[in-house]
Amino acid sequence: xxxxxxxxxxxxxxFIFDALVNKKIDTLGHSFSVHLEDxxxxxxxxxxxxxxxxxxxxxxxxxVQSTYQLLNSGSALGKGVGPLLIAKKNIESFENDMRxxxxxxxxxxxxxxxxxxxxxxxxxxSVFHEIEDAVLSGDVxxxxxxxxxxxxxxxxxxxxxxxxxxxxxxxxxxxxPLGGIIAKKSIDPILIDQVDQLIKKSIEYAFSNYPTIxxxxxxxxxxxxxxxxxxxxxxxxxxxxxxxxxEGRRAIEVLMKASNK
Length: 261
Hints:
Layout: E1 2-7, H1 11-21, E2 31-36, H2 39-47, E3 53-57, H3 61-64, E4 68-70, E5 76-78, E6 84-87, E7 100-102, H4 108-116, E8 123-125, H5 131-137, E9 142-145, H6 149-152, E10 159-163, H7 164-172, E11 176-184, H8 189-208, H9 215-219, H10 226-236, H11 239-242, H12 245-259
Parallel strand pairs: 1-2, 1-3, 7-8, 7-9
Antiparallel strand pairs: 3-11, 4-11, 5-11, 6-9, 6-10
Helix pairs in contact: 1-8, 4-7
């Protein structure tokens, strides 16, 4: 069977899917047309029912459940992996009218920020890799950063105001569900399960060759260093990526309840 498949160009996703889309493993006759986009675009595509299989932010999962089901493999979920609120200088206390750049309306980052700062009223939605520059230029007072920016913001002199993931973990007592892989419910359940297992095998293949960085990961890494690529992979790809398990699914349930409030 041939399916459409979408995920981000970030190292954690390309690391996960490299062996599958480049047929380094037996794909059981399945093939994929692959689309790489930033996570907020992927969220919007899911709302539009565009892809057969796609990465999404867990912050949008409750909006697409009628059309899609969550897979067991491929997630970014864990402890100490959450978005960070940063600014150009240390700020003693958060003001509700501060201009805050956020990487997309439907992202988990937006949800976690909103839970930490429910009264914030001046949100500016931006592509994630533009947020640091927006803070540095003074276009915004603060920004919520995700992905590789959490490893580089200090090099640019930016200051950490709040670890939004730590706030989630401290208040909810569960790991942080960032993003997962979903499949259209209209697809034969047997085929969905096969693809789910293939994603797991793809991750296992990637881990078996790690810490070597595959050319596919480098190709889409937006010129970041191999050291930053490995930090990215080490942080976002873990045992929950192989198998959500009871604890992972519990964390997602807690987030879903928070999303619906």
